[in-house]
Amino acid sequence: MLNTMVIIKMGNCTFDDWKKAFDADSETDAQFMKDIIVGKVDEHTAIVSADVFAPEKMEAMMSDPEFQKIEAEMGLKHTGNPSLSLRSVFPSVPCQGTKFTLSMFSHPYIGDLMKAYKLVTTLVFSLVISAFAFASEPIPDTGWGAVLKVPVAEVERVEQGLIEWSNWIRDTHPMGKEENGLESLTITKSYASENHVFYVIVERYRDNAGLKNHQQLFQRDVRGAYANMFAKLSFFRQYRIAGSEQNQTLYSLIPSVGK
Q1: For 8, phi and psi rounded to 5 degrees?
Q2: Residue 112, SS3?
Q3: How far apart are CA 49 and CA 2, in angstroms?
Q4: Which of 100, 104, 112, 163 has its CA 20 to 30 A from that of 186?
Q5: Exposed, middle or buried, 214 (CB in 10 Å: 0-12/13-18/19+)?
Q6: Which of 24, 25, 83 lies closest to 56 in space, CA to CA?
Q7: Backbone angles phi, psi at 7, to 5 degrees
Q8: Phi, then psi, of 93 in degrees rounded to 5
Q9: Rounded to the nearest 5°, which phi and psi values hold at 91?
Q10: pLDDT of res. 104
């Protein structure tokens, strides 16, 4: 079972309009997910959490042309992680204050834990919604990320390049609580669909200074010691989905991870 949390942005409708359509599909949704929690962030944003027990049925519904037509008419955009983890780097960094970053979780074992802590989950979910709704400070640029749509035939080349790029960051960047430290680097991948695999890349620093330091290290190394590695990364430009770049961290929950 996959416990999943998704942010839904609404371009052509309000939360109430979307909620009516969402509730109207409750019988269909019950065929592949349960324990659904819906939270209103603002008039054009919602967060949905659910236990997905039949992901293949959910995938079939979302691939249905009629469903996609309704989504396009309502201007809906979903943010969430694919279901397979290719690589994660988590320096041991505690959450600080109320400035969270949002990480979407989809893992077969989380559902069992959620059964025992459903009340706590609901409470935390409500607190997160409140934090979003009442946040007054603008979110700074503290990272970079993107979504790649890669042909199956190119998966091996792309994954090798992504791992070499990740190793460059690991070997050259400050980590964790160090000045300009990296808080996390995660690359996830989807199952193959219509002869493509999707990759979500999220590289996040403690503050904007960390992001600027990353950019300086890139300028130093792109024609220096790591020139050969960077020469292999043309797929970033080739397969990146237009408009998918990520710069701001909305929410993050990073437990301490031992080596």
Answers
A1: -120, 120
A2: helix
A3: 10
A4: 112
A5: buried
A6: 83
A7: -95, 135
A8: -130, 125
A9: -60, 150
A10: 37
In a 10 Å sphere around its CB, with 0-12 CB exposed, 13-18 middle and 19+ buried, how is residue 244 labelled? middle
Q: What angle do CA 30, 35, 36 make, to 5 degrees?
A: 75
- 135: which 2 tokens? 């946040």
The C-alpha atoms of residue 165 and residue 161 are separated, in whole angstroms, by 6
Residue 239 is predicted with a pLDDT of: 94
Q: Cβ(4)–Cβ(36) under 8 Å?
A: no
| Parts of the chain belonging to CATH 3.30.70.100 | 2-79+99-134, 141-248
- 253 C-beta neighbours (distance < 10 Å), count: 12
Q: Does domain 141-248 have CATH number 3.30.70.1170?
A: no
Give pLDDT tens digits for 167-191.
999 999 999 989 999 999 999 999 9
What helix, strand, coil percent values describe the chain, rounded to 5?
Answer: 40, 30, 30
- pTM metric for this prediction: 0.49
Kindly tell me if the per-residue pLDDT of 96 is higher than 50. Answer: no
Contact of 49 with 121, CB cutoff 8 Å:
yes
User: In which order are the strands placed within the sheet that holds 196-205?
Assistant: 84-89, 182-189, 196-205, 141-151, 246-248
CATH architecture for the domain at 2-79+99-134: 2-Layer Sandwich (3.30)
The two three-digit tokens of residue 118, written as one number: 């459903």
And the tokens for 90?
């988590």
DSSP string, 163-225: HHHHHHHHHHS-BTTSTT-EEEEEEEEPPPBTTEEEEEEEEEESSHHHHHHHHHHHHHHTTTT
What DSSP line would sit under 98-164, residue for residue? T-------EETTHHHHHHHTHHHHHHHHHHHHHHHHH--SPPPEEEEEEEEEEEGGGHHHHHHHHHH
